[in-house]
Design goal:
Length: 418
């Protein structure tokens, strides 16, 4: 078992280049199998969720190797269309392989991804989109058997702009005859990233970044190269860390526009922020003030994934801040752990009220989920004394090495084998 030891109280200063995006690379890796060829994925982050995708690709008969920080995926000899339950369970977003396998093979057998730590995570919109494109889907004993001898383009209207359903629909539509139109598509930068990668392979996808995405399917695809965008949630986490600890950091690698709601909240809290293309500089005196209610929403609204980090940053702020979580039901699970450190956060359903306290103190805490785990690290950085975190596998799903990055900025944080 590994533990993170965090000694609070240091200011954060320095420069850092942010790792490649987890949510960007996962659909890109699934998309490699839509073509039969070799793809080069640059700036691929080293994460357990990426390892889970690699395990799925290899199980399907693809070859993968690392070469100078890039992941090379050769999908030429893909010869399977089923993903076993054990691999599906390793990562919730493995369902994204469904649309890609269907586009390539016309048939896919996957187990149901099931619930997750953020609450129930249904895939009804994913399945409705695939059915509309002509797939027949049988759900039996937790297994999904999808067959589509021929897939035909359709007009798809998503009831809400689900990121995963948009990605699955785009991938499946690459294998459908004609032009598919997806209305109410998610507008996240990761959708644009998937479009760019597919187009580099010869696909015809346009409109990503807006609410209407069109995909002209059945194009002849070939291998392609792609550079994964910087991870906006990792950058948001480190900006929040510097905001609460005080100091000056300069972070590179993420388009500042993708972070605008987060930087706006931090400037309202009292930080000075300068943004230019792929660099954000933040200066903070370390004592923040409460801000207007933060409501999570689909992009370009405030990201649900950055909510726990911002909440952690405001634990010692002057005043109270209301957080309204509109995307996931169960996004405040780490709050009980924060209470062990002296935080004052009241939760009622989807609302949490953070009342700033003068000091936090170190404690032994358990990570409850990926972003909640990062929030506990941020609480530890501003607490008096030592904080010890366990269940680090949650954090490792999305951060290459949170201790490497934060120590580079001057934090006292170390991973040890218990
Ligand atoms: C993705 C991100 C995740 C982020 C989330 C919201 C990846 C790998 N993960 O997750 O980090 O927190 O977007 O920005 O990119 N829903 C349904 N039915 C469906 C699909 C979704 O009811 O078929 C609901 C979900 O339960 C949730 C909401 O829609 O309440 C949004 O989910 P969605 O945008 O699909 O999130 P993910 O793609 O799972």
């Amino acid at each position: 078992m590994q533990e993170l030891f965090v000694e609070g109280g240091n200011r954060l200063c320095g420069e850092l280049t942010i790792q490649g995006s987890k949510n960007g690379v996962l659909p890109v890796l699934a998309a490699t199998i839509v073509c039969a060829g070799e793809c080069r994925v640059e700036n691929c982050p080293h994460l357990s969720d990426v390892d889970a995708s690699i395990a799925i690709l290899r199980h399907l008969g693809c070859c993968t190797r690392w070469e100078d920080g890039a992941l090379i995926v050769n999908t030429t000899h893909m010869d399977r269309n089923e993903v076993p339950d054990a691999l599906m369970r390793e990562m919730r977003s493995s369902v994204i392989f469904l649309g890609a396998i269907l586009a390539r093979q016309g048939e896919a057998v996957l187990s149901y991804p099931g619930g997750c730590e953020l609450g129930p995570r249904p895939i009804d919109m994913h399945l409705a989109a695939l059915r509309a494109l002509g797939a027949e889907i049988e759900e039996c004993g937790g297994t999904l058997r999808c067959t589509a001898k021929v897939m035909t383009a359709a007009e798809l209207v998503l009831p809400m702009p689900s990121v995963g359903a948009t990605e699955n629909a785009i991938l499946a539509a690459c294998g459908a005859e004609g032009t598919t139109v997806i209305y109410n598509a998610a507008r996240e930068p990761e959708i644009t990233e998937l479009q760019d990668f597919l187009n580099a392979m010869g696909a015809e996808v346009c409109g990503a970044g807006g609410s209407i995405v069109t995909v002209t399917g059945k194009r002849t695809l070939h291998g392609g190269a792609h550079r994964v965008i910087g991870d906006r949630i990792v950058e948001a986490t480190y900006l929040c860390a510097a905001a609460e600890c005080g100091g000056e950091v300069r972070l590179h690698g993420v388009d500042y526009r993708a972070l605008s709601t987060v930087t706006a909240a931090l400037s309202e809290a009292g930080c000075e922020i300068q943004s230019e293309e792929e660099t954000v500089t933040l200066r903070s005196g370390g004592r923040l003030r409460a801000i207007r209610p933060v409501r999570t929403a689909p992009y370009p609204g405030f990201p649900t994934d950055a909510q726990p980090a911002l909440m952690a940053a405001l634990l010692r702020s002057a005043g109270s801040t209301v957080f309204v979580e509109n995307i996931f039901e169960n996004r405040f699970r780490h709050v009980d752990e924060l209470a062990r450190m002296g935080a004052d956060v009241r939760v009622a359903g989807r609302v949490a009220v953070v009342s700033g306290v003068r000091t936090l103190h170190g404690a032994r805490v358990k990570c409850t989920d990926l972003r909640g785990g990062a929030a506990l690290v941020l609480a530890g950085l501003q607490a008096e004394g030592e904080t010890r975190l366990t269940l680090l596998e949650h954090i490792d799903r999305g951060y290459e090495s949170i201790e490497r990055d934060l120590s580079a900025l001057g934090a006292r944080i170390e991973r040890r084998n218990a």
